[in-house]
Write a sequence for this structure.
């Protein structure tokens, strides 16, 4: 009996050690180093990783946003590339904030990235081991810009470089920020279509699309994982009766412009 209990205790401790060693399925949130998080990272302000040094600044963030600035409602790639000699296990958390320090825009799930807090945060989908080099890691997040009038947006990222010693001690944290501007000279049509609204929202059966009338456009619906679930020419109503309950994004595609509205299926 004693021997059996000893084995059981060892098994339980092993499971707990794996669970508490790191958040391999993504950050728990609140660790992006942003204003919203009061600068907290995985190793500061109560973070569970014990770093041997303070977070170090590194040029990590780049985006597909042009020099002219982001167009409200349009989607962009945000690339996170971090490096550290000898590190092969990585993680990150990211946020975008406006000039008042409020989260803005929407991150979508993809094969590399999970979204948190209804898309206000992005994190690693799993504790990534670099396939090309043991010294760096790259993720590409998909971010949809906020409504017009938001102004400058700053991305905050906190990345963790784990030493792989089986516990949370001695890991390193690298941080970066990147500011982008709003394209205030965007086509008037873009600004007018920011008035697009969906009613009712949340909904169970049908949603009316108001404030948009270009019947030559196309539209599609993606779920919170970024997977396409509907695709059709534009029409002023959307039948969502067969969709599972959850959060979705309606994308209206007009030439090189994309208008995105979020809705909830009950």
């Amino acid at each position: 009996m004693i021997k059996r209990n000893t084995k059981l205790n060892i098994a339980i401790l092993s499971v707990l050690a794996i669970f508490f060693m790191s958040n391999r399925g993504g950050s728990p949130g609140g660790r992006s180093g942003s204003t919203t998080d009061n600068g907290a990272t995985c190793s500061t302000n109560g973070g569970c990783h014990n770093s041997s040094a303070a977070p170090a600044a590194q040029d990590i963030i780049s985006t597909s946003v042009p020099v002219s600035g982001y167009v409200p409602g349009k989607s962009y790639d945000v690339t996170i590339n971090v490096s550290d000699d000898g590190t092969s296990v990585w993680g990150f958390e990211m946020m975008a904030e406006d000039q008042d320090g409020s989260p803005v825009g929407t991150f979508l799930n993809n094969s590399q990235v999970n979204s948190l807090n209804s898309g206000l945060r992005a994190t690693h989908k799993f504790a990534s081991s670099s396939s090309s080099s043991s010294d760096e890691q790259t993720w590409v997040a998909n971010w949809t810009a906020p409504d017009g009038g938001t102004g400058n947006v700053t991305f905050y990222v906190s990345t963790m470089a784990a030493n792989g010693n089986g516990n949370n001690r001695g890991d390193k944290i690298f941080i970066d920020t990147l500011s982008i501007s709003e394209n205030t000279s965007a086509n008037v049509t873009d600004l007018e279509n920011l008035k697009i609204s969906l009613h009712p929202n949340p909904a169970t059966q049908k949603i009316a699309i108001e404030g948009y009338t270009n019947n030559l456009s196309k539209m599609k619906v993606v779920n919170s994982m970024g997977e396409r679930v509907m695709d059709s020419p534009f029409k002023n109503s959307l039948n969502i009766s067969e969709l599972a309950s959850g959060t979705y994004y309606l994308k209206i595609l007009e030439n090189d412009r994309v208008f995105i509205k979020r809705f909830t299926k009950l």
In short: The domain at 23-180 is CATH 2.60.40.1930 (Immunoglobulin-like). The helical segments are 2-21, 188-192.
